Amino acid sequence: MEKRFKDSNISWVGLIPERWSVQRNKNAFICSKELIGELSSSTQLLSLTTKGIRAIKEGDTSGKVPESYNTYQIVKNNNLVMCLFDLDCSAVFAGISNYEGMISPAYKVLSCKNSIIPQYANYWFAYVFDGRKFMHYSKNIRYSLTYDEFSALRIVIPPLYEQQHIVDFLDGKCGEIDMLIEVQEQMIEKLKIYKQSVISEAVTKGLNPNIEVKQSGIDWLKKLPIHWNVITPKALFSLRKEKAKKGERQLTASQQYGVIYQDEYMQLTGTKIVTVMKDFDILKHVESGDFVISMRSFQGGLEYSENTGSISSAYVMLIPNPKYVYPKFYRWLFKSSFYINALQSTSNMVRDGQAMRYSNFVQVPLYVVPLSEQKEIASYLDEKCADIDRLIDLKQQKIEKLKEYKKSIIYEAVTGKLDLCN
Fold first, then answer.
1. CA 51 – CA 222 distance, rounded (Å)
2. Is 377 helix (H, G, I), strand (E, B) or coil?
């Protein structure tokens, strides 16, 4: 028998099987407002992430039960938990709970009415939110929703037996895709580890595996090639104290792109950066060839700048001494795990976002390598790491294709484009 379709009246869904219905979210779900009340020793603290709901383990930095726990909501097995907005207005997502516990009042906890299976609803929202389809209904074009807006959104609801067929099909298919994605992610992690080992080996031992070594006398690197000499960082890098010059383009420092102009960074990442429009005297001057100590330098964010411009006064600029420094060599050295670990040892409170200062930088002894050898090592690492990065990029492309395929499979299933019951 030929399958009949009808218009869903949802632009991005189009036609759906005739026997399927369309409802507003408010008619398909009940928003729970049940608070935790008394706290028991067995109550799990839950967290919603873009990968689903997880139970926060004891000892996690975010695992401490807050004093205001009595405002937290009860979450039951198969509840849907919604994050409809985030402080940066970029995270709207949902997850189905496999736990009993409590969660922040910032989220919405939903239970399904009799017409819908929670697992089917979870796949529906996985597509709707990941594809930002809710933006067709939001009054403002933004990555956030009020609960009233969410309640007015429409959901396609097949008969219950078809929902179960869809869930069974997607569990199997998406499980296979997720396994393939995980394999690629594991390969990427191995390549990143290999890249770091290549960098660390080259900048601490050179390119000659048979070179004679000596005791370095420094804690963070026990041995050095015999012709390399330890030196104070102050002899290699001085501190730039110049204020920004009038009309200079503003820069930003990032671990992914290095030190680039703010407008270029925003175009590459889609991230909005606050640009200084007045009081330019709070900005500092950056010269091409400087190294910039950024907010994330403890995590490997000591960046080399190929651009001249101005930057926030929160940053610190280092001027290389051309007598001893070939900048591209030290750019690789500052990214080595040995050096990053040494930097971290200079602080008692290493945490994300903590600023590193010149006083931290000068605490880590450096070493002098003949300039010609610096150039050889830098050239080798430029080529070798570019090859590794290309492999990583290829695997990342495979992951993106798999994610798009998964998204398309979910879409085809939850909108009735795939006939799974005949």
1. 42
2. helix
| Alpha-carbon span 147 to 149, nearest angstrom | 5
Residue with tokens 């795990």: 337
Please name the helix (run of DSSP H) or strand (run of DSSP E) that holds residue 393, with its range, or none: helix 371-414
What is the distance between the alpha carbons of residues 285 and 242, in angstroms, rounded to a whole number? 6
Partners of 302 in beta bridges: 293
**Residue 240 corresponds to which amino acid?**
R
Contact by Cβ (8 Å): 286, 308: yes
The residue written with tokens 């430029």 in the block is 382
Residue type, 231: I
Whether the predicted model's global pTM rises above the 0.85 cut = no
Q: What does the radius of gyration of the chain's CA atoms come to, in whole angstroms?
A: 27
In single-letter form, the type of residue at position 110 comes to L
Q: How far apart are CA 226 and CA 373, in angstroms?
A: 13
The encoded tokens of residue 322 equal: 């051309």
Average pLDDT of every residue of the chain: 85
Report pLDDT digits (tens) over 57-78: 755 555 566 667 778 889 999 9
Structure tokens at 225: 């090639």
Q: How far, in Å, are 45, 53, 56, 259 from residue 65 at the CA level? A: 7, 17, 10, 40
Bridge partner list, 243: 284
| Separation of alpha carbons 295 and 316, rounded Å | 9
Kind plus residue range of the DSSP H or E element containing 192 = helix 160-205
